[in-house]
Each structure stands twice: as C-alpha cells, then as structure tokens.
Design a protein that fits this description.
Helix content is about 30%, strand content about 25%. By secondary structure, the protein is of the alpha+beta class. The mean pLDDT is about 95.
Length: about 280
C-alpha cells in the first residue's frame, strides 16, 4: 500500500523558554503543505525478516535502524504483533530543511500500518508512539493546521486556511542543524499572540507581526538564506519566512510567482485549490 507523507511549514516561531530537560518551549503554527515523499508497506511471507527497509530518491543518511520509521516499527511491535514487512521510502522532501519530512514519514507509517494490518491501535497509543519520535511527529497524525506550544507537541485548533494562495517552498541546498540554530538564541516570552495574528491580521500585514526567532542565528551563519527570503519578497510574496530551524524558505503569493531562482535549489509550488480543479 502506497501513501504520500507531506511536509509542513511554520508560520511564526517564538522560542519562549529553556526547559529543565534541556529542550525549549516554543510557540508556532504548523500548516500542512502537499510537497510529499512516497512510502510503501508490503507484507512479506511468514518466516521472512521482520523488517526490511529500502530507499530511493534523495540520499537517506545513516543506517536503517537510525530512521524514524524503524523506530516507530519497534515501538508499535511492543503494542501489537506485526507480520513481516518490507518498507520502501522514496525520499523527495529535503532533509535539514525545517519541513518535518522525517516526522511525517514516521507518522504516516504509524497510521498506515495500523490501517493496513487492522491492528486496532487507538489514536492515543499512536500519539504516544509519535511523541517519542519527534516534537512535531504527532502533528502529522491529524495533518491539520494547529497552534503548537511546549516542545512543539501541545496542540490547539486555529482557524487558518491558505487554500486561496500560492505557496512556494524553496530549499537552498543547505542542511541546517537544529542544535546550531539554537546556539545564541535567548528565549523570551512572546509579546504577540500568534493565534490572534493569524485569525485577525491580513496576510499582507504578517511581515511586521510574524517572525521566526531562528532567523536571528541561521541568517548569520548562512547569509544566502537571508538573501533567499529577500528574493522571495522581491518576487511578489505577501509573506515570506524561513520554516522551522531552516533552511527552507517559503513565500505566500496572491498570484503565481516566477521560479527564476538558483538552479541548484529545490522548489515546490502549491497551487490554490480553486485553480487546481
């Protein structure tokens, strides 16, 4: 069975507090975008190796045991018996891009495995597994826009629909390390409520209201990412921002944007729903 794990973007990202467990509390809005990987799960004959993994597309670093999909399988195996399976991941979403691709792959694997083999694992159990794999992994179980707080795993609903806009994602062929992005950040309580901004401020005013704290450190280390954001605004975006800890930058457009960026960059353009019909 084939499924297509999609990515997300962060609309605003405030780093509000250093936690005693070494993590940080944040405030952000996760919004799903249809740029996808492809994930296939095939049942193998009895007696086969319990878990076989293969990949194609973009290079997947590390051993199979390091992959979040394998870690999800191990955790799910502790809940219910799973027949031998082969998993193939065609990697299209760039890694180190701030798009949550690895977390999405794991969340879609959890959902599909539960459905495909009638495991009858509850949403609460799936969410518990996902939360052990990454702060944003649980988001992809429901895959709807949310206001995220805590480590990025405490969700509340938000009224946000960008389906009338073009959304351009640009990956500048740079792997941004989250640990490095946190270096030099001084957490501070949010001065503006993201939910209020999203639901009450026109998008063409977000530029002055909606910021990503990671840009402070990432732009210093990678000035080309800062330049990319400037280029996206110059191309006509009503709002542009780096997603997560980078390095991808997205732009929201009223009209179809030009795609004349550096040829080494990777692009995705989501068309408004009414134009995609």
């Amino acid at each position: 069975m084939l499924v297509f794990p999609n990515c997300k973007i962060n609309l605003g990202l405030n780093i509000t507090q250093k936690r005693e467990d070494g993590f940080h509390n944040i405030e952000t809005v996760f919004y799903p975008v249809k740029w996808c990987d492809a994930l296939e799960i095939i049942q193998l004959p009895a007696g086969s190796h319990n878990f076989t993994f293969s990949g194609s597309g973009l290079q997947i670093d590390g051993n199979a045991e390091d992959n979040l999909i394998y870690k999800a399988w191990r955790l799910l195996s502790e809940i219910k018996p799973i027949p031998p399976i082969k998993v193939h991941l065609h990697k299209n979403l760039p890694m180190g891009a701030g798009l949550g691709g690895g977390s999405s792959d794991a969340a879609f694997f959890i959902k599909q495995l539960n459905k495909q083999f009638n495991l009858d694992i509850s949403y609460e159990q799936m969410n518990k597994v996902a939360s052990q794999l990454g702060s944003d992994c649980s988001f992809f179980l429901n895959n709807e826009s949310v206001l995220a707080k805590g480590k990025g795993n405490e969700f509340s609903s938000i009224n946000l629909d960008l389906s009338d806009y073009y959304i351009l994602l640009v990956y500048p062929n740079i792997h941004s390390n989250t640990k490095d992005a946190y270096a030099g950040i001084i957490p501070s309580p949010s001065k503006k409520d993201l939910k209020t901004i999203m639901e009450n401020t026109p998008i063409n005013k977000w530029k002055d209201e909606l910021t990503n704290d990671f840009e402070k450190t990432v732009f210093i280390k990678y000035p080309q990412i800062k330049k990319l954001k400037e280029d996206i605004y110059a191309a006509g975006a009503v709002y542009a921002c780096m997603s997560g800890s980078g390095s991808s930058v997205f732009g929201i457009f009223d009209n179809e944007p030009p795609l004349n960026f550096d040829s080494t960059y990777k692009f995705y353009l989501q068309t408004p729903a009414k134009k995609a019909l």
